[in-house]
Amino acid sequence: MIRNTRIAAACSLLLFLGLLVGAARVQVLNAPEYDANPANRRHALERYAQPRGDIYAAGRRLTGSEDTRQGLRYERSYANGRLYAPVTGFASQLYGSTLLEDAEDGVLAGTDGRLAPLPLWGDLTRSRQRGGQVHTTVVPAVQKAAFRGLRGRKGAVVALEPATGRVLALVSSPGYDPALLSGNSPATTLAWDRLGKDPAQPLLNRAIRQTYPPGSTFKVITAVAALESGIVTDIDAPTRTPNPYRLIGSTTLLRNESSGCADAPLREAFAESCNTVFAKLGATVGTQQIVETAEAFGFNDGGLSIPSPVLPSHVNTRMDPAQAALSAIGQYDTRATPLQMARVAATIANGGRSMRPYLVDRLADAGGETVARTRPAYEETAMTPGTAALLRQMMIDAVGSGTGGLAAVGGLTVGGKTGTAQHGVDNSESPYAWFISWAQRPGTAVPGVAVAVVVEDAEADRADISGGGSAAPVARGVMRAALR
Amino acid sequence: MTTATDPAQALRPPGRARRLATPPPPVPRPRRRGAELGLLVCAVGVIAYGYAAVGYATSGALPADLATHLGGLAGLALFAHLVVRFRAPRADPVLLPVALLLNGLGLVLIHRLDQGTPGDRAAPTQLLWSTVGIALFAAVLLFLRDHRDLRPRAAKYAFTALCLMAAPILFPAVNGARIWIRIGGLSLQPSEFAKVLLAIFFASYLAANRHALTFTSGPRIRRLLLPPRRVLGPIVAVWGISLVLLILERDIGASLLFFSLFVAMLYVATGRLGWLAVGLLLAAAGAAAVGALEPHVHTRVEDWLSPFRAIEEGHGPGQLAQSLFAFAAGGALGAGLGQGHSLLIGFAGKSDFILATAGEELGIAGLTALFLLYALFVARGYRTAIAIGEPFGALLAAGLAAIITLQVVVIAGGVLGLIPLTGMVTPFLAQGGSSVVTNWVIVALLVRLSDEARTPPEERPAPEAAPARPEPEPEPAAATAPATVPLVVPVVDEARPADGTR
Fold first, then answer.
1. Is the pTM here over 0.80, yes or no?
2. B17, B23, B25, B27: CA torsion to nearest 10
3. ipTM
4. Residues of A in contact with B324 (CB under 8 A)
């Protein structure tokens, strides 16, 4: 019987060993799979078990956390949600997070390895630090000016600091209050449904997640391409352009909405936004040159994030001369985000050096100790300084005596370019009004701000050909706020 | 396969031979009560740390009632220790501390889960039941001076067990199973008590009849030789009735436990692998039939086979899925006491699924420690069985060790998704008064048995000297056992291989 007992004991031991193997299977082998199961609420619970770190602008908190005393304990709150929603995005217990709330989630939620005092130990114990801080580059005064300028109309404003690429303002309208989406109550669901169904698409970030035909603002790029390729050597020499201009290989006649475009020199054509001149230039410099120039400004870059991901702007790399001609005036299938066009203005202002735009100045731990800082990144030289100087002058002329007069700010040097983008079948819908510009305080080396404004419903005032009427005043307010 | 073990068998006798030969000069054996006290202090320390950790994690401060709580626990431990010191001085020093540690850890885990369920305070009740359990532990040690006193009443115990198990039929079902009886505010699970009584009955019966069961001479079914009906009849009857009752009550866990316990004890008594095979075949057939026909069991099997199906169907994770999530979340070192989310398991989180909380908050490290504690306890039980040198005691000790093993394996296997879930209780750890009390009785019996096993023969009181009560002296079957059994046992063991090859 002793032997039997020993065997029974051995069987018991084997059973316990089996349990250990089973536990190892669940806790080690299958753990990642179980952890990743969407029905596992642990991530959500842990995520909201502690207050989330905050997003700052100019040292002021844009966000906050409310203790709801529920399972998902801390809920996001927003200090001035509607104004900063295009920067922060939302952090919702039900619908995930967007924009900076999403892009810097690791820091805000405290899981980012950079916050842990001992990174390897942190990995092993799966510990979670207190939520860190995200300090943005946004300047509240500029942001407010941009927001006010749009007056709730559909559109977007982006303001950059040309020398660094810092995003000074990022506004999309109509907006929403992200606080509505923070929690997990029926009210949250209701708000989500309402916002999702709203035809005005308030959840869409038009500044970085929407592309528009850039219209005449693209003429800046065409002008650079013409100057850089040597097609135009003197901006005051006549361009021998007929009016109307017939697109190569087609019978389509292109007309201008302003007079005096026949044979106009580049400077005048720029100020008056002559379609014929730029279409002909586009056809002459050719697809390759246009694409190269546009890409030097940042078009067709799918990887840009600020760190919120930016929708790439598009210029077609396979175009026949007629399409190139249309593209050169910002039509055909060329599309750009407002951020991209702000970058175009900033690059001109910065002497042709394109700086990578960024929205996050520095990341800090919960105690405010900096753990990472964004350094201005030089991306590419889009043009020679000489070309940049010519373009700056042409943009100053466009504001001083051309279509962009409403952007002028007393005491500042302002350069700009208007644009009106036709869209819809046979251009049936209201055009998009564009304005890109930069402003320089006298006595400074580089313009301090570059702005792009797009207004979707240009109040159907089609006589206002350049959008200078709708968009330029918004830009003026932004530039004034930035350089005051 | 049996021939391979023969040489080992030949080498085995020394322990027993020592007892058979003319007594060598008595080796002074340490009683080890100091070791037990030291281990108890360690156990209380671990539990104290657990309470403190829960307090810090859930409210950021030491629990206010830490001192009274620990004082009470330490008092209980000291009381149990003193009872052992005076009434079972040679008992195995590991059994009590391990049981206390497991019970204490269970209290910590339940207390921790209480923090997340404000409406349901289970820890105080559990502490009360633990106190009752330890009181019963003391009572058993005080009044049961010799385990053989249990033997003459084995038939009564079996009858009582059956009555206890039948009782819940008169009460309404709770969550699909009729396993509770409610008296006033108290709810008891009588099958818990029945398992100890049945183990005593099985041990007594098998001890008396194991030769007949080993050297079968009864009817023959084809080539299978059965023991005489007279021998087989009563035990199969008790076992069968208990299973039928449990199936009627849908107490799958207990059915499984009794079946396995019976087969295990039968094997220990007879060493016939044939019994084991028959048992396993019956179990497989029974499980397949019940699993297919009985809806309550059927869903359990389905859940086991595809724990995530409810998720795929959009109903959210079921209990087993939540349990697996909890274990997975624990990882190597666990989230830390009070910092996991095993509350997501919801219903039965403090009872059936308490191991999931342990797995999540203590990690695989803590879970391994728990399993090792159980294995240690069980090993000490089997060791007692081997050392006691008397078939009834040996069978009882082995049976009690098997009960603990089976309970742990069945429930842990269930919550880990290794086998279908059955409503078994994790001994000492899980919420449940009947279970805690019963398990403390098991500890008491093992302590009593180990005390006798570790007492050198010359110090043992003569069987006649033992009785605390005058009445049941006779012991018809056992009267000769103490003297003859040590002689018989080796003979059986050596004879068995020839029989085993059949």
1. no
2. 50
3. 0.84
4. 26, 30, 34
